[in-house]
Amino acid sequence: MSPNRLLQPLQVSTMALHHRIGMAPLTRFRSTDDHVPTPLNVEYYAQRASGCYMACQIFAMGRAAVKEVAEREGIQITAPSALRASDDPQYGDPVAMTKKQIGMTVQAFADAARNARDAGFDAVEIHVGNGYLLDQFLQDVSNQRDDEYGGSIENRSRLIVEVTRAVVDVIGADRTGIRLSPWSTFQGMCMADPIPQFTDIIRKVDALGLAYMSLIESRISGSEQVSEKNTNSLEFAYKLWKRPLLVAGGYNAETAQKLVNEQYPDHNIIVLFGRHYVSTPDLPFRVKQSLSPNPYNRSTFYIQKSPQGYTDYPFSHEYLQSVQA
Ligand SMILES: Cc1cc2nc3c(=O)[nH]c(=O)nc-3n(C[C@H](O)[C@H](O)[C@H](O)COP(=O)(O)O)c2cc1C
Fold first, then answer.
1. Atom 29 of ligand 1, residue of closest alpha carbon
2. CA 133 – CA 65 distance, rounded (Å)
3. What is the mean pLDDT of residues 60-86?
4. Which CATH architecture has domain 59-216+229-238?
5. Tens digits of residue pLDDT in 301-318
6. Apex 129 CA angle, 124 and 134, nearest 5
7. Mutational pocket test of ligand 1: of 26, 220, 254, the residue with most ligand atoms within 8 Å of the beta carbon
8. Where's the NADH:flavin oxidoreductase/NADH oxidase N-terminal domain (predicted)?
9. Which of 44, 132, 149, 277 does the annotation list as catalytic?
C-alpha cells in the first residue's frame, strides 16, 4: 500500500510542516468586546497546536457586516455597490465606497498584516472568500461599479491585487496566502459563471509568488453543507495553481486521504478541517490512529467569550496516554 500522503511532511515556503492536516480559519467570538485576545484563546489554540505554524486571516466585512453591531458602534456599512447581501434583516443597506475609502482599505490591510507579523504570526491570509468585502469586489453580483474597480473582469480583480501587493510589500510573498470560495452562495454570492473571474485573480496572485492559496469546496456554503447535486468542481483552479494548496469543505479522514493520494497525487495539498477541529483538539493524532473525531455542537460555535464549546471538548484517551508515556 502506498504511504498516506496526508501524513507526509510538506514545505510551504519557509514553513516545514510535519503533515498535511490543517485547521481552517474559524471565527469564534471568544475575545473581549474590544476584540482583544484573552488567556482563553491561548488555551484553545494551544490545545489544537501539535508543533505547528499559524497564519492570521485578515478581512473586512463590507455589506456582510451585522446591522445591529454597525449601528451600535456608529459604523457606516460600506461595500463596492449599494447592494444588500440578502433580505435577511441582520444585514443593512450598504453605501458604495468612495475611491478614498478604497485607498484606506488597501492601507488597512497592509497595517493589519504588519500587526500580525509583529504579534508573531508565521503568515497572513487575505480572506477573499465567503462574501466578505474583497469577495464582494471580485464578483459581479455585488460589484456594479463603473469606475476602474468594476465593470470588467480585470477591474473587479483590481482591489484584490492592490491589497495583495500591499500585504506582500510589508511581510513578503513567502508569508502571504489568499483564500477564495469560487462557488459559495453564502451571503448572496456566486456569479453565473465564476470561472473566468477566478481564473484571472488566481493567475494574478500566482504571479506575485504567494506561499499558498486556500480554496473552499462548493459543497460548503459558509459553514453549512449544501445539497450534493448543487456542487461544482475546483478542477479549473487545480490546473492553474502548482504551489501549495489548502482545501476545505466537508472533508473527513478518508476523503482527505483520497484527495491527496488518489485525486491529486501531483499536487501539494493540505486538507483543512473546520467543524471537526472545533470539536477535536487532537485531530491530527486521531487521523493518524484512525480514531473518530468528537461530534461538534453547532449551537456553541459562536457563544461570545464562553469556554463552553470552545476549550471543553475532550482529547482522546489514546492521545492523553501517548503524551504521558
Ligand atoms: C464556527 C465557524 C467559523 C468560521 N469562520 C470562518 C472564518 O472566519 N473565515 C473563513 O474563511 N472561514 C470560516 N469558516 C469556514 C471554515 O473555514 C471552513 O471553510 C468550513 O467550515 C468548511 O470546512 P469543514 O467542512 O471542515 O467544517 C467558519 C466555519 C465555522 C464552522
1. 223
2. 9
3. 96
4. Alpha-Beta Barrel (3.20)
5. 999 999 999 999 999 999
6. 80
7. 26
8. 50-292
9. 132
**Exposure class string for 286-297: b at 16+ Cβ within 10 A, else e:** bbeeebebbebe
H or E, element range at 155 = helix 153-171
Q: pLDDT exceeding 90 applies to what percent of the chain? A: 92
Q: Which amino acid is at 313?
A: Y
Asked whether 181 and 215 are in contact (CB, 8 A), the reply is yes
CA of 321 to the centre of ligand 1 (A): 30
Q: Where in the chain are the domains? A: 1-55+249-325, 59-216+229-238
Which string of DSSP letters, residue by residue, matches 6-66? GGS-EEETTEEESSSEEEPP-----S-TT----HHHHHHHHHH-SS---EEEE---GGGSB
What's the one-letter identity of residue 30?
R
In the chain, the amino acid numbered 24 is A
Enter the C-alpha cell of residue 24. 481552517
Q: Catalytic site residue 132?
A: yes
Of the candidates 186, 213, 194, which has an alpha carbon nearest to the alpha carbon of residue 126? 213
